Amino acid sequence: MSILLANLFLRGLPVQTNLMALLPSGESDPVAQRAVRQLEQQIGERHVLLIGASTAPAAIAAADQAAAQLLQSGAFSRVTLRQPRGDAFASAKALRYALAKPETIALLKHGELEQFLQDQAAQLYGPLGSLRAALLSQDPLFLAGDLISRRLAEGIDFDPSSGVVLLHGENKVWALIEAKSKTKAFDDSGNDGGNDEGNNAQSGPAPTARAIKAALSFAKHTPGVDALAAGVALHTDLASKTAKAEINRIGIGSWLGAVLLMWLAFRRVSAILFCLIPLLVATGVAILATSSVFGSIHVLTLVFGASLIGVAIDYGTHCFADSLGADRNWSIAHAVQQLRPALFYGVATSVTGYLALAIAPFPGLREIAVFSSTGLIAAYLTVVMAFPVLLKHYQPNTKGMRLTESIIKLYAQIPSKKYLVLLLIPALYGLSQLRANDDLHSFYTVDPELGQMEQRIKALFPHAPENQFFLVEGRDAEQVLQRENALLAQLNPLLAQQKVSSVRAISQQLPDMATQTRNIATLQHALAAPQYSAWLRELGLSETAINADRAALAAAKTIDVQSWLERDLGRGDALLWLGKTERGYASLVLLSNIKDKNALAQIRVDGVRFVDRVDDLSDLMARYRNLALALTAASLLAMLMLMVPRHGWRGATLIIVPSVLASLGALALFGLMGIALNLFSAFALLIVLALGIDYAIFFRESGEESHCAMLGVMLDSSTTLLSFGLLAMSSLPAAQSFGLMVLFGISLAFIFAPLARVQSLSTQHQQTI
Amino acid sequence: MNRLSTNKVFSLVRIGLLITLLLTSSAKAALLDDVKARVTLKDAQRGEFRQEKRIANLNKPLISSGEFVYLKDKGLLWQIAKPYASDAVITSETLIQRVKGKTIARVDAKTQPGYGAVSRIFMALVGNDWAVLERDFTISGKVDGKNWQLELTPKGGLFASFANSLTLSGAATLKQLDIAEKNGDSTHYTFSNVTPAGTLSADEERKFILQ
C-alpha cells in the first residue's frame, strides 16, 4: 500500500478543484443532461478577454501583445484574436438559394419579381451598394451576402483588415480575444477524446488563471489600456486556492488541538505518537481509496476529510483512556479486547452515517462518504490489530484523570434530568423558527472582483448565453428544425418586448429540408422569367456571367445539418446541435440577457423544453435535504434495532436518546440563530447522529466505571469539535453549514451522552464478547 | 457571434467616405488651413450628383444621378433619380434607404457599432476636427488659386481594408471625388450646381424625418 501511496504522490495527487464537479447535472433526463454538459464544456473551456483602448488600432495592438502572451504561456490550446479567414463567401454562395431569406422567398412567391429586382437595384446604386456592386457578377441578387450578414450578431463590430472582433462601450473600443484552455474545466474523468494536449489535462485551472492574470496586468501597464477577463478557470482557481488554504488550516489546527488534548490527558509522548498512527493509516487509505474509486479527489473532499482526523483519532484515545483507570495488571491487549465491541459498534454506526451521504447523487457527497468510511475502517483495524502488538510494554500515567473527575463532578451537580424539560420551551420555539434555503448560490460564493468584471463584460458583449436554454427534440433532424421554427415564432414577441435580448438557434440560418427545397423551387420558378436576365443584362453582366448564374440556380442543392456544421459558415453552430440522442435528435436554443424567465418557461411547443439548471439544481438540493432528514430518522430506528440484542430495549433507547436530543437541539439552535437548513447541514445531522450514538455506546459499554468512557468521549468530542468547528469557520458556504451543524450537534451529543450510562443501581451485568 | 461578414462594414465605410468627401475641407496644417479658407459652402448646401462605379467583370459602369441636400444639424439626404429611384437619409446615428416610402435598407449605430465608428469621422469632418481625421489618414495635396486638391491615404483600420486612396478636388465647394478601391474597382463622383441649401421643400422635410 505504501508503494501505491508513494506512487500516487510521485505522480501528483489528482486533485479536482472545480466546484461544479461536485454537483450532479441536475437532470434525470439523459438528453437534457447531455445538453447541459455540452454547453458547460464549451463555456468551461472558453475564456474571454477584452482589451480596451481609445482607438481601434491601439486596442488591437494591445490585444496582439496579450494574445501572444497567452499563447506563450502554454496554458491554452487555442488563442483567437484574428478570426480565421475561412472562405465564408464561397460556402455562402453554394447555399444561397436553399438558405435564402424568408422575406425574399415570400416576395417572389407572390409574383413580385419586378418589385424585388427594383429594390435590389436601388440598393446596388444606393449608399450601401458598394459591396453589392463588387459581387454583382458572382451573386447578382446578393443572396450570399445576405446570408453572411445574417450571421453578424447585433452590437458586434468587425475590423476586416485585421480580422479582429471589436466591441464598443465605456468610451472605449475593445478587441475580443477568445482563449480555449487546455485543461477541461468540466473534466469527465480522463475521457478527453484523444485530445493531443491530454497530458496537461490534469494541471488544473491554475496555469490558465495565472496566464490570464498576467496578460491582464501586462495590458493594463500601457497608459489608456484597460483589460477584462471572464472564464470558469478564474473562479475555480480562486475557489481551489481558498479550499487548499483551508485544508491546511483545518488540518494543522486539528492536529495541534488533538496533540494538546492528548498531552493533557495521557502525559505520555508515546501515547500521543501511537494515537497518531491510526490517523496516518486512515488518511493514507482514505486518499488511496477515493482516488482509485473516483480517479481524483476533490479539494472539498479534502476539506471535509481534514475533519476526519477528529474521528479517526478516537479509537486510539479510547484505548489509552481505558489505561488511566487501570491497575497494575492493565495491558493494552486486554484493553483492546474489552473495548472491541464498543469500538466495533462505534465504527459501524459512523460508517453507516457516512455511507448515508452516498445516497444522494452528489458526486461530492459520495466522495466524502468513501473517503471517510474507508478511513474510519482503516483506523479501527489498525487499533484492533496493531495496538496489542505495538504497545505490549506501555505504562499508563494517570495524572490526566483529574480532568475527567472534575467533569464527572459537574454532571453530578446537575440535580435532576427532569430540569431538562425547562429547555423544551426555547427548543420548541427554535424548531418552529427553522427554515431552509436550497438556492444553488448558497453553494458557492463569487469573488466580488471577478463578479464585477463579468458584469462589465456582459454589458459590453450582450450575447453571452445564459444558463437557461431551450432543448428541442424530434424524431429526426428535420423535425427538430421544424420545432425550432415553431419555438422561434413564439419567442419573437418576447424579443420585441425585450424580455430576452437575443436568441440563437441553428434554424435561424438553416431551415428544415422541406423549406430549403421549396426555397429552391420558388427561386428557380421566379428567376426563369425573362425580366430577370434582362435586368442582369441592363446592369452590364456579360453573357458568360448570366449563363453561370443560370447554371448555379439550376444546380442549387439543399444542405443537411451535418454538412452545415462542416462548412465555414455553419461551424459556429456546433454548440447548438446535440445530434443523435437516445430518443431521436436534439438541439439547443440559447438565450441572452433573460429579463423574464417565467415568460420563457411558459412557452409550450411540442418537443421543446425550457431547461433551467440553476432552478433544477436548487430543487434537487431541496429534495435531497428532505431525504437526508428522513434518512436521519430512519437510521435512528435502524441503530436502535442494532442495539437491542446487546443492550435490551431500555439500554438501546438510552443509547439513542442523547443523539436525538443533540439533533433536535442543534436544529433548534439553527432556528434560534436564523441559520437556514440546507442539504449540507441536513447531512451533517446524520454524522451527529452516528457520532452521538458512538459516544453513548462508550458510556453504556463502560458499565458503572464511566470515568474512562468520560475521558475517551471527552477527547473524542473535543477533537471532533476542533476539526468540524474549524470547518464552521470555512469561507466555503457548503463546508460552513456542514461544520456548524456538527459543531452544535456534537457539543450537545457530548453533554447528553452520559444519559446512556448504566445507573449505579442498575442490575444490568456487563458482558464481554 | 463571430462568423462575420465584411459586407456591412464595407458599405459603412463607403458611406463614411462619401459623407466625408462631400463635406470635406481637410488637410494638414497650412495646407488644411488653405483649403479651409477656400471652402465657403459648408453647413447647408444642395446640389446635383453623378456617381460612376467601374466594376471588374461588368461590361459598363454603373451610373446613377440625382440630388442631395446637406444640413449640418439634420444630416444628408441623397436622392437618386436614375436609373432606379430611391432616397437615403444619413445621420451620425442611422442610415435609412427607401423606395417610394418603403424602407429597403437600414443601418443603426446602436446595433451596428461599425457605423458609429464611421460617423465619428463624419462628425469630425463636420466639426472641422482635423486632428481626428489626421489620425486615420495621411493627407497631402495642393492649392492652386481658387482650386484645391487633396489626397487622403488611410493609415489603417476599416478604411485601409477597403480603399487605397481618396482624391478630392474643388473650390468653394467639393467638385469631384475619386475612390480607388483595393480590389481594383473605382468610384467617381461629380457634384454640380452646388448652392446654399435654402429652405427645404415639403417633400424634403418629409424625407428627412427618419422613422
TrEMBL record, chain A:
Q: Which GO terms describe its cellular component?
A: plasma membrane
Q: What does the UniProt keyword field contain?
A: Membrane, Transmembrane, Transmembrane helix
Q: Spell out where the chain crosses the membrane.
A: 247-266, 273-294, 300-321, 342-362, 368-391, 627-644, 651-673, 679-699, 738-756
Outline the segment boundaries, as ranges, of region: Disordered: 184-206
Q: What name has this protein been given in UniProt?
A: MMPL family transporter
Q: Which InterPro entries match?
A: Mycobact_MmpL (IPR050545)
Q: Which SUPFAM superfamilies match?
A: Multidrug efflux transporter AcrB transmembrane domain
Read off the lineage from the record. Answer: Bacteria, Pseudomonadati, Pseudomonadota, Betaproteobacteria, Neisseriales
UniProtKB/TrEMBL annotation, chain B:
SUPFAM superfamilies assigned: Prokaryotic lipoproteins and lipoprotein localization factors
Q: Name one Pfam family in it.
A: LolA_3
Q: Is Plastid tagged as a keyword?
A: no
Q: Does the keyword Signal apply?
A: yes
Q: Which domain of life is it from?
A: Bacteria
Which of UniProt's keywords are assigned here? Lipoprotein, Signal
Signal peptide residues are 1-29
Q: What InterPro entries does the database record attribute to this sequence?
A: LolA/LolB/LppX (IPR029046), OM_lipoprot_carrier_LolA-like (IPR004564)
Record protein name field: Outer membrane lipoprotein carrier protein LolA
Q: Which organism is it from?
A: Chitinibacter fontanus
